[in-house]
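Hello again, I could really use a second opinion on something today. I've been staring at a protein lately and its backbone has me curious. Can you walk me through what the tokens say about the fold? Take your time with it, there's no hurry, and the full record follows here:
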Amino acid sequence: MGCKSADAAFWFALAGVREAAIFELLADVATREIPRFGKRASCRPKDLTNIISKLTVAGVHPNHAVFATAQSVFTAKGIEFAPPAFSSPNCLIWLFRFGSRNRGQRTFLAKARRQYAMNAHLLECESHEPHEAALASTQFDNPELPLVLDLGCGFGTTVLGLSTLHPEYNFLGVDRNPATIGYALGIAERRGEGGNVRFVVGDAMDVAGMDADVVMINFPTPFASEGASECGNSQLPGEDEWMVTPSLLTKVRGRVLLLQSNAEDVAVVMRRDAEACGWEVDTDSVGTGLWTGEKVAGLGEIREPQRCAKYVERGGERAAGEGWYGLDSPLLPEAGITETECNARATSTPVLRCLLKRRRR
């Protein structure tokens, strides 16, 4: 029952359910079942960790008794345990696994949005395109704070993580997928996020012109590469149809622009287009403000996915040299890690990133 209640909490969160009472009840079930389940010889530490990780990423409040109960069971087994943070790899990897199963994801979300009346707020969001006037900074408790804008925020993990660490900023996450925004809204509400966090359903172009201190484009859905059928990504949009167009990069009004991708050709194109649109490498900001990521240790030898290998074979430009940072050199702190980067670390696959600023005229 502990496993099933954690699974249920995770699926309810993905469906955009906001009511904290539902998650409290499911966590209560796990609190009762974990001591009984934990005494069994068949209970592995991994099983208990999975239960706690799913409850955490479902947005169960960290003060709930289930976490102390799990810790006592681990202690009785002589195993050190600390309840995971929301942004820990053990938690976010569940989001990556769900998001990478495209067919199952679409089927589940379609059914969930039809069945749960609690998702009415998502359907309402879909019928109104966000405009800059509707997203005015007065929506924040303190509109004077500098704005961090996350374009194509997905599940909102970067915004959710950074907003608690940096209350001196306002954070706005924007994504066209109402289901992922529904998840982010539910987590923010149940965690009691302050008035410096907002999520909206919309197109990146609708908000790119907002005055922002920082604009982030983290792991956008890549375009179909040359030889897409060989790499199994022929379903992806063409380079002229994907989100990060020159028009978007020109419209962005941020002081600093962060670009991240786990596909080398995508990273190169994003930076090339950004530089053509008036951006240049910013090394001065690294190590200050939001950009205090620490070197990641313990990574295995980086292996190149098929897409990257084919790109290199074709003589593609490499993401190397000044201004490029790799998997072991995050620019954001651990609280701002995405589920995609969690998977990259687990599988030792590349991540490429760069930090840019507006070119002086």
User: Anything to note?
Assistant: The mean pLDDT is 86. The chain is about 45% helix and 10% strand. The domain at 132-358 is CATH 3.40.50.150 (Rossmann fold). The CA atoms of residues 9 and 23 lie 6 Å apart.
